[in-house]
Design a protein that fits this description.
Elements: E1 5-8, H1 13-25, E2 30-37, E3 40-48, E4 65-66, H2 71-84, H3 111-115, H4 130-133, H5 138-145, H6 163-175, H7 179-191, E5 195-196, H8 201-204, H9 230-237, H10 242-247, H11 259-263, E6 272-273, H12 275-286, H13 298-304, E7 309-312, E8 319-322, E9 327-328, E10 341-344, E11 350-354, E12 359-365, H14 376-390
Antiparallel strand pairs: 1-3, 2-3, 2-12, 4-6, 5-6, 7-8, 9-10, 10-11, 11-12
């Protein structure tokens, strides 16, 4: 029986039960979950080990974890906040800020297309090596030269890896700062969050600060809520499909435990955070957390969770829903309620907010499972939160 550490507020005991059950029945290794409601922490739990093979040091309060695509939700806040400050026009062509991007039929790609996965750029004709992916130059150059896979703005498909260089370079062109630096200076620092897009050297040196993640697994269709369609499995198995090519934009898979990768500023996939930092971050998008400041103005919050893309996803194959940078509640990514918005990370992690209930949620794990969205451990926790709210 795993020893679950931490606390839950009265009424949120079902979340503790579900968290313990994840270790007993769903193959959990090391993990943490945090929930805030109306700016107050109501769940703060952790258990297991920092080493994904089940040995080594125990997971502790403050253990951080790479969160893969849950990073996208953090990264999306940057262009939205720049828009809120009048520095970015979401309806302007990307080439307005990044002239080299106009090549090969991308003159009409809008900033909002990048955020809503409508840019037509989920794949690279020539994949990048792990070293090229993190050098800060090769990725932006590759997406700027790439021809779209479909007419931008007419359809959507998940930009699994290319989102890093599309959003990251846009932010750099507008602000003169890397996205990771902007997050550190404008979000994590002011809010006191253990959340990084590019782990600083000082944190690298703190022994055991970041839990090891198990070896990357090839993406599989099993974690998608719509599982029965042979076309989904076929897409993941076909090396020529947009699905396989999107996830293989970096080839071979990078070692996510490598200090160089942890230091890389990859807004699509390499963010590192504690569960509580993710919950507090999303809480700051919908309200004030722990006496801090609110990030999103009401109009920005509305834009973030207003549907921009919906229906069959050219990459994930099943139906998906996106706002501006955020996945919305739906069959492929069930969240707490219809108005929830957030982002999962392939293999497990999940973070989101639900403005109507005042809930913000963060879950991180080092025991990756073969899924893209709708991880069964995360979903068990979400159901437990819903049960707790229902009383």
């Amino acid at each position: 029986m795993v020893d679950v550490q931490g606390t839950v507020a009265d009424g949120f005991e079902p979340v503790r039960d579900a968290f313990a059950d994840n270790f007993a029945r769903r193959g959990e290794r090391g993990a943490a979950v945090a929930v805030h409601r109306d700016g107050r922490k109501v769940v703060d739990l952790w258990a297991g080990t920092k080493d994904a093979d089940g040995g080594g040091e125990p997971w502790r309060r403050g253990t951080a974890q790479i969160v893969r695509s849950a990073t996208k939700g953090v990264a999306a806040a940057v262009p939205l906040l720049l828009h809120q400050r009048g520095q970015v026009d979401l309806d302007a062509p990307v080439g307005t800020y990044w002239p080299e991007f106009k090549a090969n039929g991308k003159e009409r790609v809008l900033v909002r297309h990048l955020l809503s996965h409508r840019a037509g750029l989920p794949v690279l004709d020539t994949p990048l090596t792990p070293a090229e992916a993190i050098d800060g130059v090769s990725g932006p150059r590759a997406v700027a030269a790439q021809a779209p896979a479909w007419e931008p703005g007419t359809d959507h498909g998940y930009h699994a890896q290319t989102y890093s260089w599309l959003i990251g370079e846009l932010v750099r062109r507008v602000t003169g700062r890397t996205l990771g630096t902007w997050v550190a200076e404008e979000i994590s620092g002011p809010l006191g969050l253990d959340l990084w897009v590019g782990l600083p050297e000082a944190e690298q040196g703190r022994a055991g600060r970041v839990a090891d993640i198990e070896a990357p697994a090839a993406p599989a269709s099993a974690g998608l809520r719509v599982r029965a369609k042979a076309s989904v499995a076929d897409a993941y198995a076909d090396p020529s499909s947009l699905t396989r090519r999107a996830f293989a934009a970096i080839t071979p898979l990078a070692d996510e435990n490598d200090p160089a990768y942890r230091a890389a500023e990859l807004p699509a996939s390499a963010g590192i955070a504690t569960a509580d930092a993710l919950a507090r971050f999303y809480g700051s998008l919908i309200g004030v957390v722990d006496g801090g400041r609110r990030l999103f103005a009401p109009a920005t919050l509305t834009m973030a969770r207003t549907e921009e893309s919906a229906g069959p996803d050219r990459v994930l194959v099943v139906n998906t829903r996106f706002g501006l940078g955020y996945m919305l509640h739906g069959p492929a990514s069930p969240l707490l309620a219809p108005g929830s918005f957030g982002h999962p990370g392939r293999g497990g992690s999940l973070a989101f907010a639900d403005p109507e209930s005042g809930v913000s949620f963060g879950y991180v794990t080092n025991g990756l499972q073969k899924n893209v969205t709708a991880d069964p451990r995360a979903q068990a926790l979400v159901r437990a939160v819903a049960k707790s709210l229902a009383g």
